[in-house]
Known about the structure:
By secondary structure, the protein is mostly helical. It has one domain. The longest helix is centred in the last third of the chain and has 17 residues. It is globular and about 40 Å long. The two termini are 19 Å apart. The mean pLDDT is 81.
Amino acid sequence: MRKIWSRIRFLFTFHKSIPFIKDFFLSREVSKSKKLLFVAVIIGYFLFPFDIIPDFLLGFGMVDDVTLLIFILQWMVKIAPEDVKDKYSF
């Protein structure tokens, strides 16, 4: 239950993650293959947006999109170098 609340709280602080994402991709400590993997996952999702919940269901349709975004960003935080994590207090 605690993990769910932290993910919901993350949604409201997403704007703070944008500088982290920039520093993640500019970091020399993150390998190019990992950066390419994240780019491929993000672009692949936008090119092939298979939804578990269709987007035409107002409110509910975006749940799977937001959930995927949260998981991708949490994965980035796990892989990020310690200095980038410390800078953004993850």
